[in-house]
Amino acid sequence: MTRSPLDSLRFVCPTSADAVRWACVLEATAPKPGNVWPGNNQPDLSFADFVQAAEVTAAQFGSATALPFSRLVLQSMQAVMQQCQTNVNLGILLLIGPLHQAECRLKTHDAAAWQQATADCLSQLNADDAANLYAAISAAQPGGMGQVDEMDVNDAPPTDLVHAMGLAADRDRIALNYSQGFVDFFANVLPVLDDAIKQANDVLEGIVVAQLRLLAQRPDSLVQRKYGIALATEVQQRAQFDPFDLEQRFQFDRYLRTGAGTGKAINPGTTADFLAASLYVLLRQSVADSSA
């Protein structure tokens, strides 16, 4: 059996809370262009914030497994904001929340079964769940997320959250996955990270390679929300280089951190959120599951 670079980390993730902690810390540690990593902070966000948020979130997931995921997301977001005083991981929570609840129903960690269980969780959301998730978004005060045509997180929450997410699906990848049962996540994101880690034979290098490949495939939702589709598309185009080319990585990172003329650093944060959620799934898959 071929060993994966993730195998030793899976061994120290016997619980979902452990996997949440490790997924969040690994994602933040990998030196991905434009993102926070050790030694490269942003004015309102530091690597220490991510580590603290990972601990806070893991504690919430470890102590409240019976809660519906919407309530767990809300409580986790409130705890993170109280401890960190900044929105560190809203996107991560919105993605890992339903994945975690779905995992509790699984008999196998097969990706197809996990995707279907996640879709089932989302199909059962009610008005209370919508209120919880809208409250979590409101607590985080995420950059660029306000009124988006029919979906306005400042309005009263809808009774049908999945439908509301569908209205924003063409410009927000998290909304797309809520509206389509995480098909995109399991088909187009998780395999990219899994393959990159195996190809690089290194977890952190694989995370960086996966980030660049995902950015090259489609515009990052956070960049699009904050700066518009034109700049988000430019970032996508500039990411289309050999992800193992270290010099081009450096140039791309410098382009993002100098803001491409916007006056502010460009943080492709949604892509990072998807990587953290993918790490959570990969860490929870057993060696037998992942090699099947």
TrEMBL record:
InterPro entries: CitG. It comes from the Bacteria. GO terms for molecular function: ATP binding; triphosphoribosyl-dephospho-CoA synthase activity. Gene3D superfamilies: Triphosphoribosyl-dephospho-CoA protein (1.10.4200.10). Keywords: Transferase. PANTHER family: CITG FAMILY PROTEIN. This is ATP:dephospho-CoA triphosphoribosyl transferase. It comes from Stieleria bergensis. The lineage of its organism: Bacteria, Pseudomonadati, Planctomycetota, Planctomycetia, Pirellulales.
